[in-house]
Write a structure and sequence with these properties.
By secondary structure, the protein is an all-alpha fold. It has a domain of about 120 residues: Serine Threonine Protein Phosphatase 5, Tetratricopeptide repeat (Alpha Horseshoe). It contains 7 helices and no strands. Helix 3 packs antiparallel against helix 4. The longest helix is centred in the middle third of the chain and has 37 residues. The chain is elongated and about 90 Å long. Keywords: TPR repeat. This is Tetratricopeptide repeat protein. It comes from Candidatus Manganitrophus noduliformans. InterPro entries: TPR-like_helical_dom_sf (IPR011990), TPR_rpt (IPR019734).
């Protein structure tokens, strides 16, 4: 008895399905959370094959995720600004400065100046707030220095450097205060016996 092949063989060999490398790249980028780059790849895949459903679905998915990320970023920027204002009004200047600094860093990291149109404030307002805050802290340090509270003056200027690490005026004042503290310590210590 002869074995019967249950599946009849097709007379014509089937053509292998060609993989679209742009589609595969788009899917990989989408998995990695690189939505902007994924959109470019899906668009290229659609250009090569306008009827590609996976490319169309991938493109819509990447666009949706990019829109969601943008909305989340806008909300975070609004929240950082509001936190900065609240801390500032409570005279918690360091916390205000850190909130505004984080807002500026987040905005700059987006590399998209059009995002500012979606904010209820201008980004330069945050810069202005930071400048005012830094001036308050520098002036506070100066007042404390004049009152002889050298260590507290240094703390105020160190807060400036936390917000703006390269602030030359604060660095200079800290140096002067430390020199003065060392001088006062030298004069106030009892002479050593020979």
């Amino acid at each position: 008895m002869q074995a019967v092949d249950p599946a009849p063989k097709s007379a014509e060999p089937s053509e292998p399905v060609k993989a679209n490398p742009r589609l595969e790249a788009g899917e990989q980028l989408l998995k990695q959370g690189k939505h902007k780059e994924a959109i470019v790849e899906f668009e290229a895949a659609l250009k090569a094959d306008p009827s590609s459903q996976p490319a169309a679905l991938g493109l819509r998915s990447a666009q949706k995720k990019m829109k969601e990320e943008r909305e989340k970023t806008v909300q975070n920027l609004i929240q950082f600004n509001e936190n900065g204002l609240q801390f500032y009004n409570r005279e918690e200047y360091l916390r205000a400065g850190l909130a505004w600094k984080e807002a500026l860093e987040l905005f700059r990291s987006q590399n998209d100046p059009t995002m500012e149109r979606e904010l209820p404030f201008r980004i330069d307002e945050i810069t202005t707030h930071l400048d005012q805050l830094i001036r308050i802290l520098v002036d506070k340090g100066i007042l404390l220095y004049r009152q002889g509270e050298l260590q507290n003056a240094v703390y105020a200027w160190q807060d400036v450097l936390i917000v703006e690490p390269e602030h030359a005026e604060a660095k200079d004042y800290i140096h002067k205060a430390r020199v003065k503290m060392e001088t006062l310590e030298t004069f106030s210590s009892p002479p050593s016996s020979p």
